[in-house]
Structure formats: C-alpha cells, structure tokens
Predict the 3D structure of the following.
Amino acid sequence: MRQNCSQPITRYNICDLACKGYLHALSSSNLQSAFRKTGIYPYDPHMVERSNFAPAQVFIQEDSAEEACETEDREHVHEIEPIEKDIDVPVEEIEININNVEENEHALTINETQEKTVSEKNDTFFEDREKNIYILKKKQRTKQRRYLSKVVSGNAITEKETIEKIKEHKENVSRKPSQKSQKSKSNGKGKQLETITVVDEPFAGTSGLNLRGEPISIDDSMDSDLIEDEELCCVCKLTGLPQELRNCNFIVFANWRHCTLENCGHWVHLKYCCDKTVLRRHDTFLCPCHSTSIEE
C-alpha cells in the first residue's frame, strides 16, 4: 500500500492484500518468538508478570454449587485386595510376601496421587486464572416491554386464550397514556408564565461612544439618508463606482463625501475624484467645484 498509494482498493483485490499481510505475519519465526516471549514453550510461568493480571482480579467469581458437589463425588483410591490361592507356603515366606505387597501398594498409591495432582494442575492451570476473567455480574433486571408479538408468537390467534391475552394487552396499553397525561397536568400547575416584551423597531446602542465619560452629543446632520443610485459625482458624472474601479474582478467599496457648503448637494468620490482620501467627523469638505472658486 505504501508503494502503490494511488492504486485504489476494490472488492476484487482486497482479498489478495489481506492474504499477503496474513501470511507475512503468520510466519514460523513470528510464531516461535511469540511462544518464547509469552512463556508457552519452553514453559516459563514467570515470563509474564502478575501485575499484568491485576485488572482481571478486580471481580471475583463466587464458587458455584456444582464445583462443591464435584469435590465430594471424587472417586476414592481403591485398596488392592490380596488374591487367595490354595498353595502351601511356609509362614516366613508369607510374612515377607505380605510386607512386599504392602510396600508395592504404598508405592502405587503415591504414584497415582502424584499423577493425579500433575494432571489436575495442568487442567486447572487456566481455569484458576479464568475465574477472575469470566465475571459474574449481578446485572439489574430491566423491565421487559410487553409487545404484542411476544403475546402472539408461537400461539394460534384463533384460540380463546390468545384472544384474551390480546385484549388484556390492549387494555394495559390504553391505560398508560392516561396516566402520563395526568402527570403532565399536575406538573404544569406549579409553572408560571413569563411575559416577554417585543420591540417593534430595534435601534443601535450607544455603548463605546462615551469613553471619556462626557455626555453623548448626537447631531441631526449625522443622520443622513443613504446615497441614492441617481446621485452623480460632480467630477466624473458617474453613479456608483468611479471609472478606475469599474473593471475590477473583485468586490470594491467606493467612499463618497457630501459637500458641507450650504445650498450645495454635490457628492464626490474620495481618493479618485479629489485629493482627500480620509475625512474625520465634523471635518469641513468642499467639493472641487467650490474649492477652486474659493481659492481664486
């Protein structure tokens, strides 16, 4: 995948890719190293630390009654009974033979017990550790919802018993919404309605204007109406944008300014049709028509 990043993965080549990765991972060297690291072969119980099993030892499994019964019902070792034979043997030889038989029986019982303990250890090695893994949690029983399918499934609908169960189910379902409606009515009595005042014409606030703490002065002259599309610049005789900005491929905002001279309603494009680019509040501005006449 790293070598062929641009190659798409489809349903036709996904199996081939997965098999290649599986075969590379499931090699003999990887399996041998995994068995050695985990202590499976050669067997080493101290290869994995017990602290790694600590999360599994949080929950303890209770001893079940079946395990207790199994310990009681274990088969006891049967004693070997000597075989009686009708042969004349001296008393001394009989005593020696009896002693040898007792020693052999004792040796057999020891070997059998050792074999059983070894086999039990091999069988219960993982079972003792699985007690902490397989957890018996006492889960809270959830309320089983009674659907109509549970009542009808596996039964004939034409029988009287199933018809009665269906009727009971419908009655139980019809009772529940009435109880909910009563609860909603009782809860709604304590609530109070809140009155909300709606403003018809919202207006801008004055926050930020009075930074020095002085009273705010608002002139009527500042409340000028929007520039209409019919207004012409007294210099370029154009509406909207000046000639320099009409061929732009992006959005541009042109700044206008109204002449402050009385009885003059001329508008002028700033920066393009006059020398001034920026004007502050309460600054006097004369359009080029009047500024040339005043200078002369």
The CA atoms of residues 181 and 187 lie 10 Å apart. The radius of gyration is 51 Å. The mean pLDDT is 70. Residues 148-180 form one domain.
